[in-house]
Q: What sequence folds into this?
């Protein structure tokens, strides 16, 4: 039976979940030098006609002459009532949408620790599974590092970690590895004390995994990038909507990352059996990914709105300038498996009050 035929039968039986997705805050693998510190991936499950009516309602309320509305229209103070309506219990996406958040700096720390000392598989190194040991170490390093080493040394560590894992660079094979371990030596000499020193010792001893990782990138340029949060965000999104039993079909805004090859890799991920800690369950299934222009699908426009406002609300909360009302309205949409290391802001953003404090 062909994939198209199977998907048609699933849809006819009412089991297929079709979602529309978009993202906000993408800087590819340059997670530290872009314009945003948070990446958000949003998905919406609505009938096309309902979504179109919702977009028209937003236009009627905002009354801007712009041809295409974006999240920044909703984020203007004068349009706050429209935003609170959209996110609130009377809005069209309440109970029908989901957003996965990524704190980019924590994502960099987590990937580096997973890759080098968390006994990660390549899937974990690419953010496709959650290694509990690596996650716990990353949280400690992320939370203690800035105050232990100061902003300059901490920034040096983040940038060298980012460069170590980038699939494309201008430095040759060895330079990113050499630079990373020089930074580790600088941090060790600074002497943070306690568990941070133990983590640094383990990182310092991980030269061989780092060299192997860089060699693998050169040997196989098709590997899923370790630092692009889009692919793991989609994996978590499929897990959410599948709930372990239902096949999921995605309609996604066009994105350079989602090549035919990447889409095939995504499908393959859900076609295999995975460990229980993989984070998306062995029975989740992705049937298709269709790329379309946001202007042609009102559901994607709604996902674009949600991704944009979620990124801004989460970034404000991360940087101690949160809006309590908007943060509370966002909480029901947030994926509890988001890549987030800051305990204070996560306690406000998480849909599960006790999660990862």
A:
């Amino acid at each position: 039976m062909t994939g198209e035929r199977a998907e048609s039968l699933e849809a006819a039986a009412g089991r297929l979940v079709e979602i529309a997705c978009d993202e906000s805050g993408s800087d590819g693998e340059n997670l530290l030098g872009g314009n945003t510190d948070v990446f958000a991936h949003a998905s919406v499950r609505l009938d096309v006609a309902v979504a179109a009516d919702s977009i028209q309602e937003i236009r009627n309320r905002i009354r801007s002459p712009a041809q295409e509305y974006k999240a920044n229209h909703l984020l203007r103070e004068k349009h706050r009532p429209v935003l609170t309506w959209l996110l609130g219990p009377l809005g069209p996406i309440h109970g029908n949408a989901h957003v996965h958040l990524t704190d980019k700096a924590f994502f960099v720390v987590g990937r580096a620790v997973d890759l080098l000392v968390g006994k990660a598989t390549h899937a974990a190194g690419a953010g496709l599974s959650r290694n509990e040991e690596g996650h716990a170490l990353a949280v400690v390093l992320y939370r203690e590092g800035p105050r232990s080493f100061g902003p300059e040394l901490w920034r040096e560590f983040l940038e060298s970690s980012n460069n170590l894992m980038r699939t494309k660079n201008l430095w040759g094979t060895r330079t990113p590895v050499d630079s990373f371990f020089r930074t580790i030596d600088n941090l060790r000499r600074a002497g943070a004390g306690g568990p941070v020193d133990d983590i640094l010792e383990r990182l310092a001893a991980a030269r061989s995994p780092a060299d192997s990782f860089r060699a693998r990138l050169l040997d196989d340029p098709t590997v899923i990038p370790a630092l692009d949060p889009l692919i793991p965000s989609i994996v978590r999104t499929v897990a959410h909507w599948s709930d372990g039993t239902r096949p999921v079909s995605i309609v996604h805004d066009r994105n350079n990352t989602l090549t035919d090859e990447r889409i095939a890799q995504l499908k393959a991920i859900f076609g295999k059996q995975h460990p229980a800690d993989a984070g998306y369950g062995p029975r989740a299934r992705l049937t298709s990914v269709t790329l379309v222009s946001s202007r042609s699908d009102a559901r994607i426009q709604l996902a674009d709105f949600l991704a944009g406002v979620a990124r801004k609300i989460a970034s404000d909360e991360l940087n101690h300038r949160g809006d309590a009302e908007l943060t509370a309205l966002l909480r029901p949409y947030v994926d509890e498996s988001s890549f987030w290391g800051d305990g204070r802001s996560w306690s406000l953003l998480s849909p599960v009050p006790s999660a990862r404090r």
Notes: The first strand starts at residue 17 and ends at 24. The mean pLDDT is 86. The beta strands are 17-24, 38-44, 97-103, 247-253, 285-292.
